[in-house]
Amino acid sequence: MQSNIFSLRKLALLALVTAQFDSIVVATPIEERQENSLQARACAVPLRLGTAKAWAMLAVTSISNTVHPLSITGNIGVTPAGAITGIAPADVTGTIDLNTPAASSAMAVASNVCACAGGLTPALQPYADISGKTFAPGVYSFSAAGVLLGALSTVTLDGASNPKGQWIFKIDTTLTTGELSTVKLINGAQACNVFWVVGSSATLGASTKFEGNICAVTSITCGAQVSSNGTMVARNAAISIAGGKFKALTTCTN
Length: 254
Prior knowledge:
Blueprint: H1 2-22, H2 30-42, E1 55-59, E2 62-65, E3 70-73, E4 75-78, E5 83-85, E6 92-93, E7 96-98, H3 101-118, E8 123-125, E9 134-135, E10 138-142, E11 147-149, E12 154-158, E13 167-171, E14 175-177, E15 182-186, E16 194-198, E17 202-204, E18 209-211, E19 213-216, E20 220-229, E21 232-234, E22 238-247
Parallel strand pairs: 1-4, 1-21, 2-5, 2-22, 3-6, 3-22, 4-7, 8-10, 9-12, 10-13, 11-14, 12-15, 13-16, 14-17, 16-19, 17-20, 18-20, 19-21, 20-22
């Protein structure tokens, strides 16, 4: 009888321990949870740059400048290993981050948003020269691999139908703007809501007045005295500038 009692007690204890282990949920590693959360936020529509919006420039290998005057409003960063040349602290209203955790975090956020923008379904346009064209909010791709905005030309982004809308331009290879070209915003359109997703490299001609975030798979090159509002992201190479005015957009309505 005593042996049976002990056996029953052992069985009860075993059942209790088993039930406790069955109720345990194995925690996902912190890094994985953060990555999943980051990806979910990045792919939400409307697109938002989150913490990366405070950065005027993010590159992988280098950010270099050859000419002054230069004014950068916002942080600039290179990650994971590279150089920043020709830019003094006095040129930047923000931080200069060379291979820092802050730059790495911002690049991760920006790269995810760029990837999500590139995954949206576009409306195909039957041309590659956007000079003189007007675009309502939407997602666009083009018939040719590269997109051109000619010298002295203007492309207009019109927010009349939806001032809080976004413009996503998906470009297979290159984005090129000519000298003295302009991206013009009207009827409430905001530069923070414009994404130029470039499959290789972006080249902005001298004195271009540019609006919007540039997500270039390779590099971004700016001629003398370019003016640009938005975040520039060179996801695998460098950003090269020759003076000018660059501004990160920390506030956005969408």
